[in-house]
Design brief:
The protein is of the alpha+beta class and 555 residues long. It contains 18 helices and 20 strands. The protein has a 5-stranded mixed sheet with strand order 8-9-10-1-11, with helices on one face.
């Protein structure tokens, strides 16, 4: 009798699976859940992962790292290298070592309105990127380009005033549609708010990937449909809907309810949420944990007189049991970070200085920094000022909010009063962080490419300000001559042994100075229905959506 019951149960399970696969095979709409909504849709203004995730279905960069961390062409015909003659070292007029890099745009590449993508678009994008008023997040590659030789509509050579080791990606600028955006750029100071990417987001001429954006409901969702002028493999889904659900707990509820099909690994659940989800609901889904170059940290506003003191920064890090946090919350899926360079990267230095949990050491450092008086558990300095700091992060992110509470408790145990002040992601990244409006500390993550020199986040010239149009991502305001030199050298010293020595300096200076407090290297959980195939996590800044045309329903 027991065997009969077991056989019936197995048969029912098979029938249920077949039923689900049959229903999935009829799907022509894929609904994806993400945890944030983009503040804008211009690819060059305000760096935000969820925006990159969506736009990667609508655009193709010249050069990317693939899932194997290998460079490949997307918009170009052939990857330019010094070895194949596509790039040549040259001397600039003022005697510096520069580089000339030649790209050829795919002959079949066109914008969504049928207008060919040409060198006019490249030159126009360079013009916009060079202008400090444009609001571009990173203008330095554009300002290094001294000239662009236009050979024809599809072939051009970039001349840059500085040779860098990653020349074929550093000067691989993303293109804007000149026939649309030239009007928006008529007044460069207004471009940030008048770009067609925000005033006319559904215009087909803005997009040139497998999909184009056809509907935007601000704060809610984005609808994408196949781009009729796309030159590559035909995408499988007739519609992709990306829904923003800021509370991570609500993401899983929507997944189980069938309101979304898939939670994006790059911008969806945290590891602890995924682990909890898998304990309850595993039958219909497959979960993949992808470790990568994702750095969860706390930026410190170094203009603040409290945090300007290096002893205070070191005390804050010694006060936190990060190893215990990682074990309890993430079950080992998120290793402790000792700096911004990930152990998975080939340039990582295993001997980098480390800060382990030592509250007694933290108390001593705080005393040395002048916070020696303790009243009701909180420290005061000789002026009677209270040691009180604000800690911000993305509102609704359950994992980060839980970490905040632990940090608040552990910092209070050494006499630091922490006030939690969170904001929605669109506000936090759109205004508070990008314009350095956070008073003390803000917790979020950076993601990078392999061996990517962290110039834009650590070089003193990359501190956002009104004078540079809020360009750059050095939000702490870190200015250190030794770090500047190391970053400059890392870009130009390409031989392996001396390059490793420079990277060792970068990691040592970072650990000694602590412009930010390192927390974890994050793993991204990809929770996919069993019928969805073709998604290959990369572990770096180029998201899976760059290969969305390979996604399909299991047969």
């Amino acid at each position: 009798m027991l065997r009969t019951v077991m056989a019936l149960l197995q048969a029912l399970t098979i029938l249920l699976s077949l039923s689900l696969l049959s229903a999935a095979s009829a799907k022509d709409t894929l609904t994806i859940g993400i945890s944030q909504f983009p503040r804008n849709f211009n690819p060059n203004i305000e760096a935000m992962l969820v925006k990159t995730y969506i736009l990667s279905m609508t655009q193709r960069p010249f050069v990317v790292y693939d899932a194997d961390w290998k460079l490949q062409c997307m918009l170009c015909v052939k990857l330019p290298t010094i070895e194949n003659g596509g790039a040549k070292i040259e001397q600039t007029k003022d005697g510096r070592t520069g580089i000339a890099v030649t790209y050829t745009i795919r002959p079949d590449a066109v914008w969504g309105d049928g207008v060919p993508i040409t060198t006019k678009d490249v030159v126009f994008t360079w013009k916009v990127g060079r202008d400090k008023r444009s609001g571009f997040s990173n203008i330095e590659p554009f300002t290094r380009i001294t000239n662009i030789d236009v050979h024809d509509d599809k072939k051009f050579t970039i001349h840059a005033s500085k040779f860098v080791c990653d020349y074929n990606t550093q000067y691989s600028i993303g293109v804007l549609p000149a026939h649309i955006e030239a009007k928006s750029f008529a007044d460069p100071a207004q471009y940030r708010i008048k770009s067609a990417y925000d005033t006319d987001t559904t215009n087909p001429g803005l997009w040139y990937g497998p999909y184009r954006i056809t509907e935007v409901a601000s704060g809610s969702h984005v609808v994408l449909e196949p781009n009729s002028t796309w030159w590559g493999k035909k995408p499988a889904f007739k519609r992709i809907i990306v829904k923003a659900i800021e509370k991570t707990s609500a993401l899983t509820a929507n997944l189980l309810a069938g309101d979304i099909d898939y939670i994006a690994g790059e911008a969806g659940l945290t590891v602890d949420d995924a682990l909890a989800f898998n304990l309850r609901d595993r039958e219909q889904f497959v979960t993949t944990y992808k470790s990568g170059l994702i750095y969860e940290h706390i930026d410190l506003n170094l203009d603040n007189p409290i945090l300007k003191n290096r002893k205070v920064r070191r005390a804050l890090l010694h006060s936190v049991d990060r190893a215990g946090l990682s074990t309890q919350l993430f079950r080992g899926h998120q290793p402790l970070a000792h700096g911004q360079t990930n152990p998975l990267d080939t340039v990582y230095d295993k001997n980098v200085p480390k800060y382990f949990y030592n509250p007694n050491k933290a108390r001593q450092l705080l005393k040395e920094a002048g916070w020696s008086t303790v009243r009701k558990g909180i420290r005061y300095n000789a002026k009677g000022e209270r040691l009180q700091l604000d800690l911000m992060t993305t509102a609704g992110n359950k994992s980060r909010e839980l970490i905040q509470q632990v940090l608040q408790s552990q910092w209070r145990s050494v006499g630091v009063d922490i006030r939690i002040r969170n904001e929605p992601a669109r506000v936090l990244f759109g205004e508070t962080i990008s314009r350095r409006k956070f008073r003390h500390m803000t917790m979020y993550a950076w993601i990078s490419a392999p061996q990517s020199v962290p110039r834009t986040t650590l070089h003193s010239t990359m501190v956002p300000s009104p004078d540079n149009g809020w360009s750059g991502q050095n939000y702490p305001g870190f200015a250190n001559p030794a770090m500047d030199k190391a970053l400059d050298d890392a870009e130009t010293v390409c031989d392996e042994k001396p390059n490793r020595a420079v990277w060792k300096d970068i990691q040592r200076i970072y650990a000694e100075e602590l412009p930010a407090l390192p927390l974890f290297f994050r793993a991204n959980p990809f929770i996919m229905p069993k019928w969805l195939k073709g998604i290959t996590p990369t572990g770096h800044q180029f998201p899976t959506t760059l290969w969305v045309e390979n996604w399909h329903v299991a047969k």
